[in-house]
Amino acid sequence: MTATDLNDRKAAKAAKAAKRTTNSVDGIPPLARLAPLGLQHVLAMYAGAVAVPLIVGGALGYSAGDLAFLISADLFVAGIATIIQSVGFWRFGVRLPLMQGVTFAAVGPMIAIGQSEGIQAVFGATIACGLFMILVAPFFSQLLRFFPPIVTGTVILIIGLSLMRVAAGWIVDNNPDGAAPINVAFAFGTLLLIILIERFAPAPLQRVSILLGLVLGTIVALFVPGMVDWSSVGDAAWFAFVTPFHFGLPTFQVASIVSMLIVGLVIMTETTGDMIAVGEIVEKPVTRRQLADGLRADGLGTVIGGVFNTFPYTAFAQNVGLVSLTGVRSRFVATAAGVILVVLGLIPKVSAIVEGVPSAVLGGAGIALFGMVAASGIRTLTKVRFNNKNVLIVAVSIGVALLPTVTPTIYDQFPQWFTLIFDSGISAGAITAILLNLLLNSEQMREARLGDPAIGSSDAVRGPAAAALVHPDAEGTGLIPTQVLSDELAAEQTGDGLPADVSAIRLEDEDEADPER
Q1: Three-state SS for 467?
Q2: For 93-135, how does the pLDDT look when each residue is reduced to its tens digit (9 = 90+)?
Q3: Contact present, 251 and 399 (Cβ < 8 Å)
Q4: What's the pLDDT at 465?
Q5: What GO CC annotations are associated with the protein (predicted)?
Q6: d(Cα 58, Cα 344) in Å, to the nearest integer?
């Protein structure tokens, strides 16, 4: 090796070291900044993270102790999944500042499976879903064509609408005579607090408006006898391990697994959008290889979730917005947040406190939380060109999805395999949207619209995100600006033989984008 080569290598190492000390994806902020920045990410996602175990456990009639355990398991695995996604190892992890949490897309199917087959079948289907996601991750770009914005927007809208029944159930609080006036007052009082925080609070507090609404609503409820039950907090330990298979060994039912695999495809679509969005924000566009690595990490987190008594995991889009808001690009901030989540999951008293939040207060926050999910779907649908066929796709899919929501007994006389799939409005709506899109939006119709001008998109930083696709029926999903590419231009730019709607995703050559990978 010549002296010139040696000097070049030293200069490259020095440049690399200097880069890591700046505000870059691979830079590590000082601990004095790292801890509060990580805590901010935890606060931004906390309300959404604990909502799913509360919903599912409550629907299955679990005791306060079991609900607290589900919350602990959820936080513990969310931390592990976040660390895997941000730090990465081998072919797992996108190595970007992404936070992982339990997806709302799985709530309906999990409740249906749990009520008919038991919680063990939910965990078995979750493990199968995670393995499926790991296996198909390298090929998922080929499946994106089945999830254009007309489908993903409809599914996200259905998720929000279906979950509103859960918010109403929290307000009613199992009262056969309807909701007590005090419950309604607390629910809408909590909702009003959230709105006032969004209107008058500083921007950092607005990002955690739902969490603050829950905290303030609970504090007010302390002055009403019987509203807050924290009797289990005293019995909860300060430290406890989250044990695998706490509720028994998982069971694997074919119909349950099929229902959860549909959720897995929705999760992968959502995470794809989040990865591309955060890559744009931190100015490190994801490569095709990184995309597969990130989806594998989603699958691995979901498998770990099934083992440790929790549910499927996905990237949380509200934290993508927080990265944009703060301008902090370091992936190790997400890692710090993951460590905080793991620690919280190992402190049962924290979970017991969360479990003791009045159901009416949860109901008020749920109206806002689930409404934001539905609004995210509507925002995605605004990118769709609403001709008669697309209107019909959305209309029929929502109609089919809401049938079991408004009339839960509608499929009681059908076989069990049918009810496990279609008793969940989310699964039924997703299947309907996919099939109708394939039927009504033929290849010839899509090709005829390839030359249409692009529609501008806005930054979607709230609620679940769909894939950032360029599709003949819509330009993107509101995550990043995109434009339509002709078949010739797409082939020239990508050279990978993928269809134009997939090739238009900003996936740069992996060696140029990340020479170390």
Answers
A1: coil
A2: 888 888 898 887 788 788 888 888 888 999 999 999 999 999 9
A3: no
A4: 39
A5: plasma membrane
A6: 21
Least Cα distance to 204 among 327, 295, 121, 103 occurs for: 327
Give the pLDDT score at 144: 64
Q: What's the number of CA atoms in the CB half-sphere (13 Å) around residue 16? A: 9
Handedness of CA 145, 148, 154, 159 (dihedral sign): positive
Per-residue pLDDT, averaged over 241-254, amounts to 87
Euclidean distance between CA atoms 331 and 290, whole angstroms: 14
Phi then psi dihedrals of residue 121, to 5 deg: -70, -30
pTM score of the predicted model: 0.65
Whole-angstrom CA distances from 84 to 57, 59, 295, 308, 322 are: 26, 31, 11, 16, 20
Amino acid at 76: F
Percent of the chain with pLDDT over 90: 10
What whole-number distance in Å separates Cα of residue 192 and Cα of residue 1? 70
Cα dihedral sign, 119-123-128-129? positive
Q: Is the dihedral of CA 159, 165, 168, 172 positive or negative?
A: negative
Under a CB-based contact definition with an 8 Å cutoff, are residues 316 and 45 in contact?
A: yes
Nearest Cα to Cα of residue 477 among 317, 326, 316: 317
- Dihedral sign for Cα 16, 21, 26, 31, please: positive
Mean pLDDT of 44-73: 81
Averaged pLDDT of the chain: 75
pLDDT of residue 82: 93
Q: 250 near 123, Cβ under 8 Å?
A: yes
Q: How many helices (H) and strands (E) does the chain have?
A: 24, 4
Whole-number pLDDT of residue 126: 93
CA distance 155 to 433: 8
Query: 224 Cβ partners below 8 Å, 6+ apart?
Result: 182
Instruction: Decide: helix, strand or coil at residue 369.
Output: helix
Q: Which two tokens stand for residue 113?
A: 């499976």
Collapsing DSSP states into helix, strand and coil, what is residue 102?
strand
Q: What is the residue extent of each domain of the chain?
A: 24-378+385-449
CA-to-CA distance for 41 and 47, rounded, in angstroms?
Answer: 12
Lowest mean pLDDT among 155-164, 299-308, 385-394: 155-164
Residue carrying structure tokens 């931190």: 282
Distance CA 155, CA 189 (A): 30
Place of tokens 């330009």: 475
Lowest-confidence pick of 262-266, 405-409, 478-482: 478-482
Both structure tokens of 413? 């006389």
Pairing of strands 470-471, 313-315: unpaired
CA geometry: angle at 195 spanning 190 and 198, to 5°? Answer: 130
Q: How far apart are CA 337 and CA 341, in angstroms?
A: 6
